[in-house]
Amino acid sequence: MQSKKNILVTGGAGFIGSHLIKLLVDKYPKYRIICFDKLTYAGNLENLAEIENAENYKFVKGDICSEENVAKVFHEEAVTDVIHLAAESHVDRSISNPSQFIETNVLGTTTLLNEAKKSWSSAENLFYHVSTDEVFGSLGKEGFFNEETSYDPKSPYSASKAASDHIVRAYGHTFDLSYVISNCSNNYGANQFPEKLIPLVVNNINNSKPIPVYGTGDNVRDWLWVGDHARAIDEIFHKGKRGETYCVGGENEWSNLDLVKLLIQLTDQHLGRKGGSSLGLIKFVTDRAGHDFRYAINSRKLMEELSWKPSLTPEEGMSQTVSWYLENAEWMSRVTNGAYMDYYNEQYLKR
After folding, report:
1. Annotated active-site positions, please?
2. What is this structure's pTM?
3. Between 3.20.20.210, 1.10.760.10, 3.40.50.720, 3.20.20.10, what CATH number should domain 6-186+223-250+291-313 receive?
């Protein structure tokens, strides 16, 4: 039997948040799921259109850095739990504007924690902080990150997420705030903002534009399908041990160049082009400052304790993702020109 919960999902209109909210709204009809999002460039309510009229769902526009906004949503919605996904997350943006990342990822997280500390009195109330594998730094050609890996962030983005991880743990230790943390690898799938590698590459291939590849393209990332990440968050939220950390990986390592070549193969195939005809679009560009060489996650703890595992093979997940972006070219156009905000204005401001 489902207990009554009012779960605040911060950053819920973003890529990962929207997939998670749709899962929770459908799977737990007795819960009330509140999407709390500032609707910056990466927050798009179109991602949640299919559940926007569900009885157990509500959208609240707000900023995690605003004490007033956060206090209001906690009190008006009687928030019992938080799944905290709101964050500035693009490494390149953190290099050009580090202060924005400190403000959102560190001070915003602290604002949420302060309100949770004031509002909650039971260990049943949970603050779930979703973080990244980038807090662990960079790997060589061998080895994996796990829950015992020391922190060694290398970019302003990863440093801000590392700081927020430590602040969550500090509040748990100092104020007995019930919490759990997960650190995930690179997510991919439908509805991802096209500053990220996979939608950017597919969109550029579709429009015959150059595909920028940093350095020599040898940097390696582990890729996690967003649907599997949403399932992992669900399992950790309900069954994870309080005060623990869980690493979530896709067992899906690709060098950036090899991934781009796979995406070219899949996209050309979907478009009916001769295989590999878009290889000439690859353009090697100056490497990102401080570019970490390799990330890879060992998810054994999550698999053994909570019986989670990735559901799609890398080829299935990438093929499905390429198909979605090509079949939703209008969505891509609206996102890239900012017109997705028209949806919010039409659905919420004009009601």
Report:
1. 133-134, 157
2. 0.93
3. 3.40.50.720
